[in-house]
Amino acid sequence: MRARRRQAAALALPAAAVFVLFSVVPLLSVARYATWRWSGTADPVPIGAENLLRLLRDDALWASAGTTVLFALLAVPTFLTLSVVIALAIEGVRAERFIKALLFSPGLITVGGSAIAWYLLYNPDFGVVLELTGFALPWTTQPVAALVYVVMFTLWAQTGYGVLVVSASLRGVPREIKEAARVDGAREAEVRRHVVLPMLRPTLLFLTVIGTVFALQSYTAVYLLTRGGPFGSTRVLGYYLFETAFERFELGYGAAITLFVMAVTVIVAVVQARLLSGRGARETMR
Amino acid sequence: MIGMRLLTLVFCLFVALPLAWLVYAAFIPAEALVRANIATFGVTLDNFTALRGSGLWRAMGVSVGSSSLVVAAQLLFGLGAAYAIRNGAPLLGGVMVLLALPSELLLVPLYRQLQGFGLLDTVWALVVPFLASPLVIFLLLQALRRIPWEVVEAARLDGATELTIVRRVIAPMLRPELVASGVLAFAAHWNLVLYPRVMTTESLWTVQAFLTELLRTRPFEWGLLGAAALVASAPIIILYLLLERRLIEVFEAGFRS
Prior knowledge:
- The structure holds two protein chains of two kinds.
- By secondary structure, chain A is mostly helical.
- Helix content of chain A is 76%, strand content 1%.
- Chain A has a two-stranded antiparallel sheet with strand order 1-2.
- In chain A, β1 and β2 form a beta hairpin.
- Chain A is globular.
- Chain B has helices spanning 2-26, 30-34, 46-49, 56-86, 92-99, 107-116, 134-145, 150-157, 162-173, 175-190, 194-199, 207-217, 222-254.
- The interface between A and B is large, with 93 and 95 residues.
């Protein structure tokens, strides 16, 4: 049996090797790269803690962190609400399968192509939506509008995932419990609010975590749509990192920013994990 | 409920609009745009012929080749890893951490790593770091947990090696999940935008890198942009139309509790 287990474990070796070589080792090496002045092509020069100290007085970095928080505050609650509302609204409807397929598709279809479609549709100077309705979101000039625009694109691409996850857990709600509430005279809206919604809580917490990860990764959407502008209003942390390292070719400082983002990610993850387990503990005590 | 349905309808239209536009724009004649009259109906293939020599087809080749290679490896290695975890290998925690890792954290250190291996600006930079995927492992593991384990025990009693069990017993049973995870993995790799721009130069650009460059250099040629976007989306659209039901089922099943 032990030989068996070892045999089976050996099957994980190729994947483990890839992860160690191309995720774990690079992540551990970041701390060393952060002590370099390094353009990416020439040999790196060790400069000690200079990059790390620069983090503290880099106003653009802190502004970027603020933008990321604002982005998450706009995107995550909307993502949760849309996922739950849509999943509830289409439960058992004849078009359920079609709607799910539609909502899931933007996340798969070529992001570059989506960006082109969005650019041509929503451009505030000559976009199709402007021509048809006379109104367009002024995302090229107004900072807030630009952030809303990137949030809309992200919701457009990702809400399908949320709907599928909520819909999957809706199927886990036992029919008898809903029936019992109806027998007790609860109206449909009450059944949803007082019976179904509380049972979705673990799913909602899970989606909050996923939604936060999406928000931290929103730099691709920013790159495609606004390149951080106007006036840096959409420069989320991931985009600032990319810009510093690969457009200004300060990879050493880019490594320092990577450390910063890593710290933010860990703090967010710990806080969320504590919230998750805290609620779980209270639940079992009841 | 009516309010919720209405919101759903509006959101569906919001999602469908860019997709519909993508298809429409690819076929509009250039003169319809000159007159700034988008309601002029007319269908032309000129936009597609205009793409000849633009580098799109070369980029398509790079993308199709590297994404296919990556998917094959991710399924192969992912199946092995998922089976090992199902048998008690303590790797699940690590996989979940990698699954939740924001990808931008790897840009700088991976650049150095690939530079050290001499892989920078080679096609291998697009392939080697992606040979295993936490998402694929997670989805396959969820599927493995639904398989009645007596099947595996029986095969063991018959003296089959673990490798044979995976190849002859597990793989056929997980075929739907392998197909579905494969499509998701293909889409994930196909849709990388910044990574290929950072790690390779123009001759190795993937179709996404090509599209973003086209949008930057020729922002007013709507028809050309639409056609390029449609061509670049075609492989995924076809895969999705063929396998949509299975894909959604597997994805949902993976997240059921």
